[in-house]
Amino acid sequence: MNSFSTFSTLFISLILGLFIITSCDSSSELQKDFTCQKETFYKENILKKQQDFRKYFTTYFPENWKVNLYYDTKKTSIYAADTTVSLTETTLIDVTLVHKTIFIDNTFAQKITEDNKKMGFTELKTKHLQFLKKPSYYSYAKGKKGNHSYHILNTFTKINTDNFLHVKTEVYGDSFVEKRFCKAIELIEKININ
After folding, report:
1. How does pLDDT run across 166-194, given as a tens digit for each residue?
2. Following DSSP, what letter does each residue of 123-139 receive, concatenated?
3. What is the pTM of this model?
4. Fewest C-beta atoms under 10 Å: which of 13, 62, 98, 135?
5. pLDDT, tens digit (0-9, with 9 covering 90-100), for 35-83
6. Measured between alpha carbons, how far is residue 37 from residues 25, 132, 175 in Å?
7. CATH topology of domain 27-193
8. What is the rounded CA–CA span in Å between residue 191 and residue 184?
């Protein structure tokens, strides 16, 4: 009876330990898919709040990044990049809220795949997921743009029946590609829909 009690205690401790370890894993689906380590690249005090012209969404980018705002009757955008480093060392992020109805389904995913092929890109990863607690889809592709190798992550999120969010992340060159995407994902996940 004593060995059964000891076994039961060990078993329960093991189960609780596994539960605690897995519940502490707060990595998002994007972070997991890009095998991002649990590290924070940007401290909150160096991030500057950016709001689009129409006040539909808010982003946060490092203070030293160049940020441009754009809007017309069909969309509103925030485009940002670290212009203090070369094109093959920076990351470009374009966050656009588009006033258009979309359905994030297999037909939509197939269209994105076809568009990537037309541009000469090879899809490396695609996935339906929840992003910003909403139905989303991403396509990660690689190709060539100009004289540089090129990686692009397009994330589409249905905000409501009339609008969707398109976040395009671009990386030129082959140096630190994974790290640059992980840093971008950290910023992308700070987007707030107003």
Report:
1. 999 999 999 999 999 999 999 999 999 99
2. EEEEEEEEETTEEEEEE
3. 0.84
4. 13
5. 898 778 887 778 999 999 999 999 999 999 999 999 999 999 999 999 9
6. 11, 20, 18
7. Protein Transport Mog1p; Chain A (3.40.1000)
8. 11
